[in-house]
From TrEMBL:
CDD domains attached to this UniProt entry: TatD_DNAse
Protein's UniProt name: TatD family hydrolase
UniProt entry tagged with the keyword Metal-binding: yes
Species, as recorded: Gulosibacter faecalis
GO MF annotation, one: hydrolase activity
Region annotation (Disordered) ranges: 1-30
Alphabetically ordered keywords of this record: Hydrolase, Metal-binding
EC number: 3.1.-.-
Polar residues biased stretches: 1-10
Domain of life: Bacteria
Basic and acidic residues bias locations: 15-30
Length: 315
């Protein structure tokens, strides 16, 4: 059965044009990098967020990705509307799969409005769609969240997402910012879903070793290339290669030397080549390992193959 060809009609969000330090960003999309010799995948992107001088539509994102040898991407929600958008996008394009969740920074807003339970029920409904490959991004964020009530809402939401992931036998993508100890403690206390991923890994070698011991995946974004991110490179070095993934987190975290410009899945080869160089391994061999990890975790992207894979997985 072929996927639907209808495409979501608009981007729910547009990114601010100012950089982290208040400077105007260069809003030109970079040139397409030389493709790797092996197809690669973007573990985590936000295609619903429009960026650049002229925002790219889904067809344009996928065309550029194809030119760069990027065979597919997981497009990730952060609230109910964006999660619905991801599911529609993944049903329209066989090279996309969706992840659905209420972001930890959004959970307190849903709770304050008395809508957290309803929102979580909608995430569970969306998770049943065959084009949904993961529950995420969910987790804990102590950088932008303050107050006991808000933190309780984050934890309640996180635990509910863990239950949803287990119910549908889906991997889970974790947002963990300044909350490593509590994220690990929660996963151990509640029981981590099969296929737990630390998206945009932000820890150090200690967290990497914990992840390795637990069999949790660590996904690296463009910030692994930043000058001040030696702890990420050190963490990468101690991880088993079979637990490593790569992502853009686009439109954010564009890798050096393109930092500050719009990010998109087609730039995955830039980060992947950097990681291979850091590890002293052949880029194509590393790409093959990371792609094997991605497909083993999320399953095939093609609709027919995916339906058979899901039927076998869920029994």
């Amino acid at each position: 059965m072929a996927a639907s060809t209808s495409t979501p009609s608009q981007h729910p969000r547009k990114r601010d044009a100012t950089a982290e330090h208040g400077q105007r960003r260069d809003l030109r999309y970079p040139e397409v990098p030389e493709p790797l010799g092996v197809a690669c995948y973007d573990n985590h992107t936000h295609l619903e967020i429009e960026d650049g001088e002229v925002g790219l539509e889904l067809d344009e994102h996928l065309e550029l990705a194809a030119r760069a040898g990027v065979a597919g991407a997981i497009t990730v929600g952060g609230d109910v509307p964006s999660s619905r958008w991801q599911v529609a996008a993944a049903n329209a394009h066989e090279r996309l799969l969706a992840a659905v969740a209420i972001h930890p920074n959004e959970a307190p807003n849903y709770a304050a409005a008395g809508e957290l339970d309803a929102g979580l029920n909608e995430i569970a409904r969306l998770a049943a769609d065959p084009r949904v490959a993961a529950v995420g991004e969910t987790g804990l964020d102590y950088f932008r969240t303050e107050g006991e009530t808000a933190l309780r809402a984050q934890l309640e939401s996180f635990e509910a997402h863990i239950e949803i992931a287990k119910r549908f036998r889906l991997p889970m993508q974790i947002h963990d910012r300044d909350a490593h100890d509590d994220v690990v403690a929660t996963l151990r206390r509640v029981g981590a879903p099969e296929g737990t991923v630390f998206h945009c890994f932000s820890g150090d070698t200690e967290l990497a070793r914990i992840a390795a011991d637990e069999g949790w995946f660590c996904s690296f974004a463009g910030n692994v290339t930043f000058k001040n991110a030696q702890q990420l490179r050190d963490a990468l070095a101690v991880l088993p290669r079979e637990l490593v993934l790569v992502e853009t987190d686009a439109p954010f975290l564009t890798p050096v030397p393109l930092r500050g410009r719009p990010n998109a899945p087609y730039l995955i080869p830039v980060t992947l080549r950097f990681m291979a160089d850091e590890l002293g391994v052949d880029a194509d061999e590393f790409a093959a390992q990371v792609s094997e990890n991605t497909l083993g975790l999320y399953g095939p992207f093609g609709t027919d193959e995916r339906e058979a894979w899901l039927e076998a997985r869920r029994g």
